Peptidase, M48 family (Desulfonema magnum), 410 residues
Amino acid sequence: MNFIAVIILLTIVADFVLHTLADVLNLRMLGDKVPEPFQGVYDTERYRQSQEYLRVNTRFGWITALFDISVLFVFWFGKGFLFLDQWSRSWNQGPVLTGLIYIGILIAFKTILSLPFSIYATFVIEERFGFNKTTWRIFATDMLKGLMLSILLGGPLLAGVLAFFEYAGSNAWWYCWIVVTIFMLIIQFIAPTWIMPLFNKFEPLEDGELKHAIMSYAQSVKFSLKNVFVIDGSRRSEKSNAFFTGFGKNKRIALFDTLIAQHTVSELVAVLAHEIGHYKKKHILQTMIISFAELGIMLFLLSLFISYQGLFDAFYMEQKSVYAGMIFFGMLYSPIEFFLGIFMQMRSRKNEYEADRFAVETTQDGSSLADALKKLSANNLSNLIPHPFYVFLNYSHPPVLKRIRAILNS
Ligand SMILES: [Zn+2]
């Protein structure tokens, strides 16, 4: 085993140990007492359920992670990457097509293996806690649509990246950077109108008290909003959410129908004000710029490592190739990804406070936002008292109690 293999192995083990440690600490925080701001929102029984939900999901996460790691190790040390390479090359299809076969089969293999886990999560766990609305039919068509999209959109992109690294020499990384960036911008632009409607129905919010309140709020903060959409989240789950997608003229605010059903008008305006806050404070733009910068760095590092012999030796490969180099580099890159992820989440948690503050300042109504957050947490059975280390590793949003405290104190 060479030192590249050792680095990758240690990363995988360290990642598992850290996350398990965080999980254990997280579970030890659980207790019977409903935190004070939630008394009246969470009854004892519902609160007990939220803790059970966390326990069940944590245990399920352990099983999934252990399974994934075991499969990877068996495949890796059983020389699976080498045998698949020999088989893919036996079709004599040139480097780009061979690469598509190789990576396509790895992805298909991973998808098939994870299928029983997502079935269990949807039809057993979510069902048991009363969230699941997904039928087998919706589940299957979602899978098929996802598959078609990844073949139609991901296939040509992957072929392009493989071709650049195969034929463009040392310029490949920045050619790829430009092409992938443009591709991602186009996807972001067309997602609200072309991709998301494949999975959900978007309907303009009907005229009435809610629409009127939202429109006059948007006007008061000079946010041009042509329409607000209602998305049929209830098709799949009882959980609720609101989000913001696209940019320019294509930007859309969508509220889940489940959210509308459970909140008052002023709470919904507060939620929407929070979303607009993200836009006004340029969080969305900043996140996009940072991820494009990260993409550039990653592609540059990829160009340095893609033909490094040690990378191929680590996986028992007999011949070098761009496609296998990409896969192996992806694993070598994961420590950097880990630290970047932590940084991005810290940023995101800070942005959440900022968006909350924006909402409170512009609506002059902190209690509606606080009430909305309480209802959202109770409805989604969120954990109210996560361990700080767990938050540090996993949370893109601050713990809800901290948010509520910040909102009511501002
Ligand atoms: Zn937010």
Remarks:
- The CA atoms of residues 9 and 337 lie 15 Å apart.
- The radius of gyration is 23 Å.
- The beta strands are 202-204, 228-231, 242-245, 252-256.
- The pocket of zinc ion is lined by residues 274, 278, 352, 355 (CB under 6 Å).
